[in-house]
Please model this.
Amino acid sequence: MDNLALACRCGTISGRAIKVYPHHGTRVVCYCKDCQAFAQALGVAETTLDAYGGTDIYQLPAARVQIHRGQEQVRCLRLSEKGLYRWYAGCCNTPIANTLAPRMPLIGLIHTFISDPGAEGKTGPIRARVNLGGATGEIPRELVRSAPAKGYVRKLLFKILQWKLTGQSRPNPFFTGNQPICTPEIHAQSGGEH
Ligand SMILES: [Zn+2]
Ligand SMILES: [Zn+2]
Model:
C-alpha cells in the first residue's frame, strides 16, 4: 500500500491518493478531443498534453482520493450539459481530475495534479492508449502495441462494478451526496465526448 502526493502547480490545493498499487495500476493516456479541449480551455495544453495530444490519467476509486487543503479553489468545467465533470484548480489552472456521474466511483487523476516525485514507480506504466482517433500526430507503433486500447472499456467497467460493490464510491472529494462541490461551468463546444 502506498500513498501518492497530490498538489496543484502553485501548491494551494493538496491531498493524496491512498492504496496506489503499481501492479494493478489503471493508468491510461486518452487522446480524445475533449480532453484536449479541456487543457486548451485552461491555457495549459503545453504542460498537460503529450506530443500526440494525449492526457496521462490515473484511474482509481473515489474513496481513495483525498483533498486536504484548498478545496475552496477547486473548480469544475463541463464541455456539454452531459459531459464529464472536469475538475481543475482555480488558483493556477492545473487540471486535477475527471469524474463521471456522482454515483460512479471512478476518478481519473490527471498527471498534472500528481506531485509525488516517485509517481512513476507507484502508478506503474501506461496500460492503455485510448481514443487514438483524436491524436494530433502519428503515435509510434511500439507505444500503441505496449498499451493496447482493446479490452480497455470492458476492464474499466468491471473495475467500476467491483469498486461499487466493495463500497469505494464514497466519500468522493468532488461530490457531497449527488451534488458537485461547486457549480460546474458549461463550456459548450461542437463534437461529442468519449
Ligand atoms: Zn494552484
Ligand atoms: Zn479523453
User: Anything to note?
Assistant: The domain at 4-186 is CATH 2.170.150.70 (Metal Binding Protein, Guanine Nucleotide Exchange Factor; Chain A). The mean pLDDT is 93. The pocket of zinc ion (ligand 1) is lined by residues 8-10, 12-13, 89, 91-92, 94 (CB under 6 Å).
